[in-house]
Amino acid sequence: MPAADRKSGYQLALSPVSVATALVVFAIAGFTVVLAGFAVGMLVGALVAGLAVFLGRSLGRMAFETGMSSTLTSRFFGFGHMGSAIGSVIFAFMILGFLAIESALLYQGTLLMLDLPDSWPVRVLLYGAMTLLWIALAIFGLKPALRASGVLTAVTLLVTVYMIVHIYVIEGASPMDVFTYGGVVPGGVWPRFEAAFSVMGATAGTIALVTTDFARYCRTRRDVTILAAAGPITQNLVMTVLGSLVVIGGMPEVVRYLMAHDPGLGPEAANAAGSTFVMQNTGAFFVIFAGWAGFVTIYAAQAKAQAINAYSGSLSLVNLADSLTGKKPGRAVMVVVGNVIALGMIAAGILEQFSSYLAYLGAMTLGMCGVMIADYYLVRRRRYDGSAQRVEKCNWAGVITLVVSAVTGIVLMATDVFALGFLVSLVLAIALYPVLRRRLPEGTGTTFVAGEEAAAEAH
């Protein structure tokens, strides 16, 4: 990357910050506080932010030193050319999952705003229209969407502030009710801490991988640190405060709104319905408190995010095909394929399984981060001169480590043995990889490709 094209960490931070203010993050932040209360939620937010900054800085330094994206970095460190296909699968699962969840949240908000029934004709119409919009933006409108990113992020935050003013100044709610809120999880501090960390902690690996893609453009190592800190601080601290103020403080008005629009709905049923809005209809808060302004804002802001999701998802699929077959299918085709996969995730009920999706995704992304960090820092001791002549087709030590660590974490969570199994995945990956690499040194059970071939990336 030429020095003239590099940017400061503050300039590059706009991209992870725009990801960190998406509707899905608002849902995660609000739900965390609903479960654990404000004090425990903020503690968890600070811990997760610290973990995400560590991961983002570690991976970002790798991308900065090598000048490669996260996809290519995984080819050179941890997995090999073909072995990196497993990383492309994880990245695609992450990006396309967010594409699906954001669409589902917008769909629910649209039903509320336009008072539409949740019927198959409405689903086909709305999801079809959104999918065509995401495809068009990813293929033809990505640059305008990126240029508008800063403005749309600012508008989203301003509308959120307006909602907070409406709740606490106009409606007269007390902020102390939020700050002293204890959460719905019964028991002491540990059950609430575990519940909160199981929701928010899994996102540490996702924001770190997003950061890695932009770290190669940094001017200095200090800029890498600034970039690595921007997304996690916004996502896990700022959004936790904003989300809790809106969700907890605004819940009484949401209940009143539901009862007014459905006279047959009693207080208990209205409270239950309002609680489901936190994770399954986050856009409802923007609709109820900001009306058409909120509705238009979430669509405009999410259109930008969805364009990036659709584009990034297509690159993951292209690189997956390249890793496995050596052929690069057209990006436009893979944009369509990615959106079809996202629709399949919606049909499979990804929004209803949001917490499980996050937890299992966390085991995969943190396991992947662990392998790459262990390979670069522990095995190679940061040795990379930028002139690698050859790269393994498959680094079996990395692939085996990722599978073992991710599966272990998922099994621990699926069987309710340990709700924070994704942390086990991270620790196990960092500990296991150096051991396996000594037993399976470079070239074991594989051949090599030229470094130039491994460094070829889809655009």
TrEMBL record:
The chain crosses the membrane at residues 12-29, 35-55, 76-100, 120-142, 149-169, 189-212, 224-248, 283-301, 332-351, 357-378, 394-412, 418-436. One of its GO terms (cellular component) is plasma membrane. Keywords: Membrane, Transmembrane, Transmembrane helix. One of its GO terms (molecular function) is cytosine transmembrane transporter activity. InterPro entries: CodB. This is Cytosine permease. The lineage of its organism: Bacteria, Bacillati, Actinomycetota, Actinomycetes, Kitasatosporales.
